[in-house]
Structure to design on (565 residues):
């Protein structure tokens, strides 16, 4: 196994068995679920029942969000005046989902002539700009409502004011200081600590505005799609939205999503948060990364089966192209990082002419996993560098970028993900300052990722009963990860290791008389770097094999290491 890979530090959690059993009895769930609840900070029977039984009654009043009342008043005025309205979104899944959701919500509210728009990733970059306002005004639009963008759009807001176009901003991105001059600004980042909507994504905020307008929750599937795809924490309000949204997806099977699921090799009847993350989300994102995200929006709004099928096939083809481009850039970035020793510092900045701007964010995420370093990946064209950064847990990316702001012409994002634009000549200075800024943070020093393991088990304990018990904890995702188990002293069945698609590993693992097929995604490089030991310790998620008809279980590996002792 390659010494170049960061070694994960396993944190095997300890839970007091009697306390877990008591909580499980009170909540009416198996003991293992009680253990998992305690590990996630759910410590009382009341909290457990609320966690395990999400309902509409748990959604908070949308008018608790600052700016909501002013937004509703301005939208009502637009309806009463017969104004045309434009919903202006973003090109990622969150933005597209929010755009589709609010477009339908405005139509339900009685606005006529509602249209939708978004920037072109490669031509425009992120967010609404004055030119978009001018085009809307020329087309007779009286009200623009942004979703998943707008909090930093000072120039666009001023242009709307100059032209007499109403502007309502709904967003969830970080900001500092003043807000743009708009009729209303709804952004959970405005709220005090502890606000129930603090972790809403763009689609979540749009959902709240839709609820405030129409009095009832609609398009829960779109809220769930955006929340999961934007990797928001699945706690509190978000957990409720995603749980209810997945139920909605299964029950009503939106035409476009159903067709997209079909080309992704599953049925919406079996949709999960994981399938949203790894099947639907990437396909909806791909078209916006490579071309115009409008096709993804059209798919979500499609009402014609033939059109839905055409668009789903288009998005699937774009995703295949994206994968090829992403893998090439990743390979080139790894080669450069290792050749120059860039991974020896607290952060990595890598840049090259010819890289595709639309996929550098994905590449940055993969490089974080490969080197366990905070990473910025830049593509250079015509003297300008545009890129994306991703942070390791414990590092505040925006804090680091704020320290480098003098180098940027534009930047913004979250604690864990951000984008930036700078002149080519500033790359070296930015790289040096970025490494120093990350290095100064307390969370930057870990040599390897921390892997939380929920419990140690023997493979003999992994059966259908265990997996059915774990289903009570879904949906899984950020903030509520799928349970990870550890098994020690596991045999790698001789000659069973195979490489799939030059990226993934498949093998058979055995302990005693119990054997399972196991998959380790994106770890083929480790296999190529050296032989696996015959006896290993494994960290894994147990899942039903969706391709098997007999209810077989397979293990999704999170880590593998030589057996201790």
């Amino acid at each position: 196994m390659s010494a170049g890979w960061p070694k994960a530090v396993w944190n095997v959690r300890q839970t007091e068995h009697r306390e877990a059993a008591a909580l499980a009895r009170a909540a009416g769930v198996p003991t293992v679920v009680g253990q998992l609840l305690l590990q996630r900070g759910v410590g009382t029977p009341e909290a457990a029942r609320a966690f395990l039984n999400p309902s509409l009654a748990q959604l908070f009043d949308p008018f608790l969000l600052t700016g909501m009342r002013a937004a509703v008043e301005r939208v009502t005025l637009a309806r009463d005046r017969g104004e045309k309205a434009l919903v202006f979104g973003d090109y990622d899944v969150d933005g597209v989902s929010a755009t589709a959701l609010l477009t339908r919500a405005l139509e339900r509210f009685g606005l006529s002539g509602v249209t939708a728009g978004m920037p072109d990733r490669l031509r425009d970059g992120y967010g609404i700009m004055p030119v978009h306002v001018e085009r809307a005004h020329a087309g007779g639009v009286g009200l623009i409502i942004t979703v998943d963008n707008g909090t930093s759009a000072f120039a666009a807001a001023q242009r709307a004011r100059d032209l007499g176009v109403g502007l309502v901003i709904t967003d969830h991105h970080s900001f500092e200081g003043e807000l743009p001059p708009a009729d209303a600004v709804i952004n959970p980042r405005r709220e005090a600590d502890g606000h129930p909507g603090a972790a809403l994504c763009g689609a979540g905020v749009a959902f709240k505005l839709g609820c405030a307008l129409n009095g009832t929750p609609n398009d829960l599937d779109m809220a769930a799609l955006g929340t999961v795809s934007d990797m928001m924490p699945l706690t509190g309000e978000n957990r409720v939205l995603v749980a209810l949204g997945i139920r909605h997806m299964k029950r009503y099977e939106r035409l476009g999503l159903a067709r997209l699921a079909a080309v992704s090799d599953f049925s919406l009847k079996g949709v999960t948060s994981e399938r949203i993350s790894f099947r639907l989300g990437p396909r909806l994102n791909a078209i916006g990364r490579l071309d115009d995200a409008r096709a993804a929006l059209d798919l979500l709004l499609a009402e014609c089966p033939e059109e839905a099928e055409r668009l789903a096939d288009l998005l699937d083809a774009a995703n295949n192209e994206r994968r090829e481009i992403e893998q090439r850039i990743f390979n080139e970035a790894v080669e450069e990082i290792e050749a120059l020793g860039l991974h020896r510092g607290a952060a990595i900045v890598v840049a090259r002419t010819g890289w595709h701007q639309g996929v550098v964010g994905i590449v940055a995420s993969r490089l974080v996993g490969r080197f366990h370093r905070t990473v910025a990946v830049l593509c250079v064209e015509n003297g300008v560098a545009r890129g994306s950064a991703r942070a390791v847990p414990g590092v505040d990316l925006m804090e680091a970028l704020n320290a480098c702001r003098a180098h940027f012409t534009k930047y913004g994002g979250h604690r864990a993900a951000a984008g930036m634009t700078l002149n080519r000549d500033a790359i070296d200075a930015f790289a040096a300052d970025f490494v120093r800024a990350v290095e100064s943070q307390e969370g930057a020093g870990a040599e390897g990722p921390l892997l939380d393991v929920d419990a140690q088990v023997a493979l003999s304990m992994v059966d259908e009963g265990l997996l059915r018990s774990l289903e009570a904890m879904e949906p899984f995702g950020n903030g509520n990860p799928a349970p990870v188990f550890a098994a020690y002293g596991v045999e790698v069945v001789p000659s069973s290791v195979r490489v799939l698609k030059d990226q993934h590993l498949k093998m058979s693992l055995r302990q005693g008389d119990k054997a399972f097929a196991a998959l380790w995604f994106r770890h083929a490089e480790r296999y190529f770097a050296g032989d696996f030991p015959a006896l290993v310790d494994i960290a894994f998620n147990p899942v039903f094999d969706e391709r098997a008809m007999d209810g077989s279980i397979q293990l999704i590996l999170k880590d593998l290491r030589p057996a201790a002792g």
